[in-house]
């Protein structure tokens, strides 16, 4: 299973004197985690800026899974592939529509 993990750098919030709204600056850090079916971490990418795309981070990791492995990933990794690895990916909900019951069942 591959999942991005983001966290805040702890920046302060900026207040706007003209109104009562508060603008929060979102400088984050990110890692991608590879784990097995028991949720044991088997690989952790280096820490990068949160704005870096999930697929690019996975591509740069150069991690190889054993042939015949099963890799579950979300739509943030669209287009990512590994040789001899089966990669099922959930179907994304169409904008303004719902998934069919069959598609929802496959996504589990």
UniProtKB/TrEMBL annotation:
Compositionally biased residues, Basic residues: 1-17
Gene Ontology molecular function, alphabetical: metal ion binding
Metal-binding among keywords: yes
The keyword DNA-binding is annotated on this UniProt entry: no
Region (Disordered): 1-30, 88-108
Basic and acidic residues biased stretches: 96-108
Cofactor entry: a divalent metal cation
Span of domain DDE Tnp4: 21-107
Name recorded for this polypeptide: DDE Tnp4 domain-containing protein
Biological source species: marine metagenome
């Amino acid at each position: 299973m591959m999942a991005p993990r983001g966290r805040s750098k702890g920046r302060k919030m900026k207040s706007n004197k003209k109104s009562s709204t508060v603008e929060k600056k979102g400088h984050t850090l990110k890692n991608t985690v590879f784990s097995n079916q028991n949720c044991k971490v088997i690989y952790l990418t280096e820490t990068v800026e949160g704005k870096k795309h999930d697929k690019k981070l996975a591509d740069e990791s150069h991690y190889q899974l054993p042939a015949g492995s099963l890799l579950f990933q979300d739509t943030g990794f669209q287009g990512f592939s590994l040789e001899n690895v089966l990669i099922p990916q959930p179907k994304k909900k169409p904008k303004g529509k719902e998934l069919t019951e069959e598609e929802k069942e496959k996504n589990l």
